[in-house]
Fold:
Amino acid sequence: SWKYVLQEKSADMIHVLQFPYNGEPPRTRLVENEITPNKDFFVRNHGGIPEINPSAYTFDISGLVKNPQRLTLADLKNEDLFPRITKTVTLQCSGTRRIEQIQQYPGDGDELINAPWGEGAIGAAKWTGVSLKKVIKRCGGLVDDAAHLEFFGADSYFKKKKIYNYVVSVPWRKVKANEVMLAWEMNGEPLPKIHGFPLRAVVFGYIGARSCKWLYEIRAIKHESMAPVQKKEYLYYTPQVGKQNTLYSNGFSIQDMPVSSAIMTPLDKEQIVHEGKIKLRGWAYSGGGHWPIRVEVSGDGGSVWYEVPYEKLSTKYFHAWRLWEIELPVDAEGWLEFCVRTWDNALNTQPTYVRSAWNWDLHVTSSCHRIKVYSMN
Ligand code: MTE
Ligand code: MO
Structure:
């Protein structure tokens, strides 16, 4: 993996896990561009990075489709067969901001798999590829009772001395809605190796985990995939279920990402000399086809809120984040708690505290993001 980290990633990536490689970009830089440059896009891997020769590469559509097919990259890129699409879509890992849950609940979470992410396991890219719906249509559609599509990645990983392949599934209705893409380009460049070269799925508005990289097979099936990534990871539990008494069947399979936001500058524990105003910048995102409509920040831990002016919210793309900035009036000196909360177009907003959304496997930390800054006026 390190060969590709050095080749494809910025030198100052924050290495969240060394192996398997997981990394996120420095906070301030992530919110400098509405479209995240490839070298700054977070990387989340369960195992190593498979070497795939693109000219020998084929991928199979199998299982409960009327005419199973083997396709090449050239087939997918043939615009007589499939219309090509380019779309700006945000990918977010359900582990984003897990560090806040770890700080309050050390020892929770599945430490073999879960990475201690900060606020940077999110990004927006312009993906180019084809709609998976069109590919399934070319296979004659699904056989009657097929309802899910299972994605097979060419990477493998170890867990408790066993070796697994990366396998997940998405419901057919998601594909039918044209919200799943097979992508071979990221921001106008061939997909970087570390991001799934030569082909990956991009599932709009769902947790990043469903966007399978190094895709080599798609199988139509009746029920959700039985693979461990689908059935044992990426589950959300009620607070009554702790790490010791878990049954996986108690977990809810996370799909849509909830509304969330983060302050990316200033940084936590930063000292700021100012003349009555401090500039804050960050991101806001909502999954499931929703988008942020209102972002508010507070300089006193959440008593008084200031709304980000609408013109300071970046362009609204369906299925992408919005970046924001605001000048916050600050009189007080000393340690202050800054926080942010966002509403989406379904008028959902964020839980107030980390503990309101605690779940033992430490997914989806979507509470108000809080930092402490030292104000010198
Ligand atoms: N696909 C494969 N084959 N193997 C993986 O480990 N990780 C998933 C998903 N697809 C993963 C994968 C997870 S959990 C996330 S959040 C996204 O890829 C991250 O995509 P990125 O590394 O391109 O940012
Ligand atoms: Mo993830």
About this structure: The longest helix spans residues 2-8. The chain has a mean pLDDT of 96. The longest strand covers residues 148-159. The radius of gyration is 21 Å.
